[in-house]
Design goal:
Elements lengths: L4 H16 L15 H13 L3 H14 L4 H6 L12 H21 L11 H7 L1 H10 L4 H4 L3 H11 L2 H15 L5 H10 L12 H12 L7 E2 L5 E2 L1
Antiparallel strand pairs: 1-2
Length: 232
């Protein structure tokens, strides 16, 4: 029978995170140099979950040394490695290679410095709530669901937990700290799921700045004023 979620995570959870980092990127690591996808995984994981690196190294090496046999394949009790353009034997060698890179990074304390994300996986790992916001409310279906961008922003605010709204605002300010130019913000928004243009006359950076200011301001609350009047 297929693995239960807890068994999957125990055996392959962090291995899967590493391999997701390769989405859209080749398995081009060499013994001397980690490729862009692995570097992105190392950078994000060092700065957010450094303890997970040792788990990744162990799971990668275990899978490379003991790939699933016929019985486990028949029962479905294994993690299927995505197609990375390598033959079966080449996959095992590659898994050992990236495990060696992770181990070396841990033992030598070699931490990639903060940088603008370089892969689709890294954009979403670093800005998860921004990905939810842009991908969920500003996909190509947005014009069919909302009258305009402002309505979509308000729908996000009204239907999302305030703590997650605050997280989005914080992520947007982290994005602004990168000092991107307008094409850079356009790339970031596209990577994070935005499929419509910002409303005129704004560019992507100007519109995101307005969104951060709007969502960072608590909505007006109405109720009895100090003398029984209405406060706004």
């Amino acid at each position: 029978m297929p693995l239960s979620p807890i068994d999957h995570d125990r055996r392959y959870g962090e291995l899967e995170q590493v391999l997701r980092a390769y989405t859209g990127h080749p398995a081009d690591d060499t013994t001397a140099l980690a490729g862009p996808a692995l570097t992105a995984y190392l950078r994000q994981t060092w700065h957010t979950r450094p303890w997970a690196l040792a788990i990744a190294e162990q799971q990668l090496r275990e899978y490379a040394e003991h790939p699933p046999g016929r019985l486990r394949l028949r029962l479905g009790e294994f993690y299927a490695i995505p197609d990375v353009g390598l033959p079966g034997g080449g996959i095992q060698q590659w898994l050992r290679c990236i495990a060696d890179h992770i181990r070396r990074s841990i033992e030598e304390g070699d931490v990639p410095p903060p940088s603008v994300p370089t892969t689709h996986w890294e954009w979403h790992a670093r800005f998860p709530e921004t990905g939810q916001f842009l991908g969920g409310w500003f996909s190509q279906d947005m014009p069919d669901e909302f009258t305009n961008h402002d309505d979509a922003v308000e729908d996000y605010r009204s239907s999302t937990d305030p703590q997650l709204v605050a997280r989005l605002v914080g992520e947007l300010h982290e994005l602004f700290a990168m000092g991107l130019d307008e094409p850079g913000y356009a790339v970031a928004a596209a990577e994070l799921g935005m499929e419509v243009d910002p409303p005129a006359p704004y560019g992507t950076d100007g519109w995101l700045t307005m969104v951060a200011e709007r969502l960072g301001t608590p909505p007006a609350e109405y109720g009895p004023g100090p003398q029984g009047g209405t406060a706004s």
